[in-house]
Amino acid sequence: MNYRIALLKGDGIGPEITESAAAVLERIGTRFGHHFQFTTYLIGGCAIDALGEPLPAATVQGCLDSDSVLLGAVGGPKWDGMPGDKRPEKALLGIRSALGLYTNLRPAKLFPALRGASPLRAETVAAGFDLLIVRELTGGIYFGDRGYRTGKYGEEAYDTEAYSVTEIERIGHAAFRAAMQRSKRVVSVDKANVLETSRLWRRTMHRLAESYPEVEYSDLFVDNAAMQLVRNPRQFDVIVTSNMFGDILSDEASQLTGSIGMLASASLGDSTRGMYEPIHGSAPDIAGKNLANPIAAVLSAAMMLRYSFGLAAEADCIEQAVDRVLERGIRTADLVGNTGIVPVSCSDMTAAILSEISENTVTAQ
Question: What DSSP state is assigned to residue 139?
């Protein structure tokens, strides 16, 4: 099979980690008989520097012409002074909207070898956890009306959150379908005691739950959900929530796994084309130093194989290779902690994963 992949390397450590992920996909292609054609497009700060805008039209068209998209990271202090509509991060909202990617899947799994790296108590993570946050991606406060005005106390800023029933329904169906393939439990997170959008969210989710009688459904306020994630993440299977709440909770969940450098994500819409990216940022302080953890980008590539291309065995191969590398005690700097392990570089971690892909068989999951 031949697949066309748009590479959006972006800023900071983005080029390093996307190159690692592309190398892993090429190794998978060699092993399983696929061909991946990569085309690089500009996005974020590097696009501003080169073309004066964070999301060039050529980048959008290139992604639309591709079978899937692999994104690194955007942004950095160099562009912090840019106006809001010209900042690198604006490109993320734009590309998600242009590609119709309204569902964001963010799995948070504690690899057995990293239990000691989790900030939670040993007895809390002894049995591990494997949860999925389903985040609505193209609505809510990030896409609402915003601006500045003169108020009672002088200059003030405002951001508006709005959700339609249709937007809630489609992300709700995505969450319930995901739960049907897992442990059949969904928790919907909102702030229905305060926000009208959350009250509509809750009513709509309750109605949808009636169509999935096999799924155990419950609601949580977002503040309680944040607390419960820290208290016992194992209680969760699928969490579905709004754009902003999902952004915050998934970053919290990432730290429970040992490092934000471990979490991949998939952004999906109605077509098979998706956009896959690690949830971490551009980490400009370590950019170009070969120190980044490439695992989140590599696992994002595995999600691409699974969700966009239907290549489950190939995705399993990558995920198992990562697991074996960690079991061997190989760690990048973000995973070392107080273990005394000498950290490896980004390129060395990538080489270790490539070796595992080449040398080991895949077991059914």
Answer: S
Question: Which of these is catalytic: 130, 251, 323, 348?
Answer: 251
Answer yes or no: are the C-beta atoms of 231 and 223 closer than 8 Å: no
Shared domain check, 229 and 124: yes
**Cα distance between the two ends of the chain:** 23
Question: What does the DSSP assignment read for 20-65?
Answer: HHHHHHHHHHHHHT-EEEEEE---THHHHHHHSSSS-HHHHHHHHT
* Structural domain that includes position 221: 119-134+163-256
Identify the CATH number of the domain in which residue 213 sits: 3.40.50.2300
pLDDT score at 173:
97
Least confident among 53-67, 73-87, 173-187, 232-246: 73-87
Q: Is 129 within 8 Å of 258 (Cβ atoms)?
A: no
Is 223 part of the annotated catalytic residue set? yes
Which of 241, 256, 271 corresponds to the end of one domain? Answer: 256
User: In the prediction, which pLDDT does 339 show?
Assistant: 80
What SS3 state is found at 268? strand
- Among this protein's residues, is 142 annotated catalytic? yes
**From CA 307, how far away is CA 273, in angstroms rounded?**
9
**Residue 352 clears pLDDT 90, i.e. is over it:** yes
Q: How many distinct structural domains can be found in the chain?
A: 2
pLDDT at 353 over 70: yes
Let me know if 247 is a catalytic residue: yes
The domain boundary residue, chosen from 229, 256, 283: 256
Q: Which of 67, 90, 191, 276 is catalytic?
A: 191
Of 285-294, 318-327, 353-362, the one with minimum mean pLDDT is 353-362
348 carries an active-site annotation: no
Q: Are residues 333 and 363 in the same domain?
A: yes
Tell whether pTM > 0.85. yes
Catalytic residue among 142, 217, 276, 307: 142
Nearest to 88 by CA among 12, 169, 194, 21: 12
Q: Given 49, 159, 223, 285, which residue is catalytic? A: 223
Cα 172 to Cα 269: distance, rounded to the nearest angstrom: 13
Known catalytic residue at 184: no
